[in-house]
Amino acid sequence: MKLLTHNMLTCHVAKCKKNNFPLKIVLANESSIHMEESDMNPDFIRHMIPKIDWRALKEAADSLELTGLPSNAPTPENVDENTMNALHHILMEADIQNCQLVCPNEECKRSYPVVQGVPNLLLTKDEV
């Protein structure tokens, strides 16, 4: 699961309508993150900047010890080369293979598994 995907996932339990984002990443073990080199597409990164919840991305990256993001989001027009490289590395190259995604809502705390990079957000019939 890429952090770009994580940045768009929320808890969908019927009773969990507030404080359900961002889901907390709890790694299965230290080898749960794979780094996969890929060619950078600066236009794609610039296009994604306004769509990213920066606070959630920064929080997730920091929790996974992925560094290089500034505290505040750049604008697509003024993103510098270091930030562009960090965004590419964090959004496109970091691949989380095995973890739990945990709802931050204290009343919910629903945990969703990520196995071999695929998040499973299916709910039981009691949760719908």
TrEMBL record:
<dbReference type="GO" id="GO:0030488">
    <property type="term" value="P:tRNA methylation"/>
</dbReference>
<dbReference type="InterPro" id="IPR005651">
    <property type="entry name" value="Trm112-like"/>
</dbReference>
<dbReference type="Pfam" id="PF03966">
    <property type="entry name" value="Trm112p"/>
</dbReference>
<dbReference type="GO" id="GO:0070476">
    <property type="term" value="P:rRNA (guanine-N7)-methylation"/>
</dbReference>
<comment type="similarity">
    <text>Belongs to the TRM112 family.</text>
</comment>
<protein>
    <recommendedName>
        <fullName>Multifunctional methyltransferase subunit TRM112-like protein</fullName>
    </recommendedName>
</protein>
<dbReference type="InterPro" id="IPR039127">
    <property type="entry name" value="Trm112"/>
</dbReference>
<dbReference type="GO" id="GO:0046982">
    <property type="term" value="F:protein heterodimerization activity"/>
</dbReference>
